[in-house]
Amino acid sequence: MIVRIMGEGQVRLDDSHFAELNKLDDELLDEMESGDQEGFRRTLGALLDAVRRLGTPLPDDSLEPSELILPAEDASLDEVRQMLSDDGLIPG
Length: 92
Prior knowledge:
The structure is a single chain. By secondary structure, the protein is an alpha+beta fold. It is built from three helices and four strands; from the N terminus they run ββααββα. It has helices at residues 18-34, 37-54, 77-83, and strands at residues 2-5, 9-12, 56-57, 68-70. Helix 1 packs antiparallel against helix 2. The mean pLDDT is 90.
């Protein structure tokens, strides 16, 4: 799967990593619902770090369609809330 982190670029991520990412996504959703700004910031950073660590960056000139778009690390709680689906940022 191709994942885009807004403002950074794209990475290719193997589907086997989605269990770990979904756990972080669930935590992020809980923190957003409770208004836990500090927890939200920490978990968003952990989610993006996991994508960077587990994924393989695509070249900057690559134009692959992104199957998943994640917010930038400095995105606000409201900006991320607008990106959410019923499943959170990561479907499944």
